[in-house]
Write the structure tokens for this entry.
Amino acid sequence: MQENNRCLLEIDGVPMPNPTTYEIPFDDLDSADSSQSESGVQIRNRVRAFISQINLAWRVSGADATKVLLASKPDKVQVKFLDPTIDPDSEGYDPTKGLYSTKEMFVQSRSCTLVRLGNAGDRDSSLWDISFTLMEY
């Protein structure tokens, strides 16, 4: 994937059409013994920080709709995505990867809505809203 073609992500090596929504919330994972004390003090034992999640949505037709839906089908996918946490001025920056990270993820919360029904036999004339969330393992 080249940064100059503005492709935001690949799933299992297949470049996806650019989504209309590309949201990356980062969550932390706390251990089971994290809690709040009787006096109201938070006791936190963070196990992992900045677990990647990518909320995606597309408005696509035809072959692009098929490409996106088939990419979301496997149990586990390898996702190369534009990562806002990468600092090109940091010591650990790898210029061969650019501003992209690659992580193993799974798909959840798939949704596919028909926006416009096209002509029978012409899949490119129908329009679909497709969305799902990619979660880091």
About this structure: The mean pLDDT is 92. Strands lie at 9-11, 14-15, 21-23, 26-30, 35-36, 42-43, 46-61, 77-82, 100-116, 127-136. The first helix runs from residue 62 to 71. Helices lie at 62-71.
